[in-house]
Specification:
β1, α1 (22-32) and β2 form a beta-alpha-beta unit. This protein is an alpha/beta fold. The chain has one domain (10-253): NAD(P)-binding Rossmann-like Domain (Rossmann fold). It has helices at 22-32, 43-48, 51-57, 70-84, 99-102, 112-135, 163-185, 200-203, 208-218, 226-237, 262-265, and strands at residues 10-14, 36-40, 88-93, 139-149, 188-194, 247-251. Strands 2-1-3-4-5-6 form a 6-stranded parallel beta sheet, sandwiched between helices. The relative contact order is 0.14. It binds nicotinamide-adenine-dinucleotide. Nicotinamide-adenine-dinucleotide binds at residues 14-15, 17, 21-23, 41-42, 45, 66-68, 94-97, 121, 148-150, 194, 196-197, 199-202.
Length: 266
């Protein structure tokens, strides 16, 4: 299913680590739909994953940037505009990491220094990206900025730990900055709240496999996979969604509207 709906658009995709990453699929789908893109990830991640294979396949460049560093973001935006020959039309923030979850700290015994890093990487980086892009006047009018979120921002999923707060902050930044971007350049800002998805970040959550099955049964359409999330991102980057902004958009096969699923009781 390709319709060239991103033809002529220029985008930056954060967070493609390996071929399971949601951002990996988004990058592939954006290229298929005719967009010109630049890939970026934290310098440390570039060593681990296969991002350079993806760049080769899509005939594009990788520009390293730690999303918590304003200096790195300035460099990324400047070099991207230079490479693609103009301002940016869309950006995907597909970044999440919890130090306390990684180190298996219980929610009632969190390390606050680690929490600061979690919030910086997973949420404040989104504000940093938007503020840097605004100061550099890097976005074209009617552009689209997206970040990926999870329903633990609204409801309690105990094993998601401090990432719940990180996602709540992320969604709030999308709403608040969405106002300023709309006024400045009619740029829209949204978060997509995605189903559990089998990726490096997703699988790091305790009990992920069991929970993945639970969510799949709870969702009338089943869990949304990474490829369908990529299709939704493409739609949100396209001109067909120009009046959608400051929203948290559920992409979860119906999970968020369910109360009880008989399948779970069987
Ligand atoms: N997998 C799921 O179940 C699921 C569900 C809902 C939302 N999400 C969200 O989707 C997004 C993408 O995650 P994923 O599941 O594709 O996993 P992933 O592990 O493939 O992607 C996470 C990315 O964040 C990058 N990253 C970490 N620290 C960074 C930094 N300082 N600067 C720049 N990049 C950094 C990693 O290198 C990696 O590429 C995350 O925001 C995640 O919370 C995932």
């Amino acid at each position: 299913m390709t319709n060239g709906i991103l033809k002529g658009k220029k985008g930056i995709i954060f967070g493609a680590l390996d071929d399971k990453s949601i951002a990996w699929k988004v990058a592939e789908r954006c290229a298929e739909e005719g967009a010109q893109i630049v890939l970026t990830n934290a310098p440390v991640a570039l060593r681990m994953g296969g991002i350079y294979d993806l760049a080769k396949k899509l005939n594009t460049e990788v520009i390293p940037a730690d999303a918590t560093s304003v200096e790195d973001l300035e460099n990324l935006l400047a070099r991207s505009m230079e490479l693609m020959g103009g301002k940016i039309d869309f950006m995907l923030h597909s970044i999440g990491m919890s130090v306390n979850v990684r180190k298996k700290k219980e929610y009632t015994d969190l390390n606050y220094e680690w929490m600061k890093t979690t919030l910086d990487v997973s949420a404040i980086s989104f504000h940093k990206l938007m503020q840097t892009a605004m100061k550099m006047d890097a976005m074209n009018e009617w552009g689209s900025i997206l970040a990926l979120s999870y329903i633990a921002a609204q409801r309690v999923f105990p094993d998601y730990s401090e990432m719940a707060e990180a996602k709540a902050l992320l969604e709030s930044f999308a709403r608040s900055f969405g106002y300023h971007w709309a006024k400045k350049a009619k740029v829209r800002v949204n978060t997509i709240s995605q189903s559990p998805t089998v990726t490096t970040a997703g699988s790091g959550v305790k009990g992920f496999t069991d929970f993945f099955g639970y969510a799949d049964k709870m969702s009338p359409l089943g869990n949304a996979d990474a490829l369908s999330c990529a299709d939704y991102c493409v739609a949100m980057f396209s001109d067909y969604t120009r009046m959608v902004t400051m929203q948290n958009l559920y992409h979860d096969g119906g999970f968020s509207s369910m109360g009880m699923a008989p399948e779970i009781l069987e």
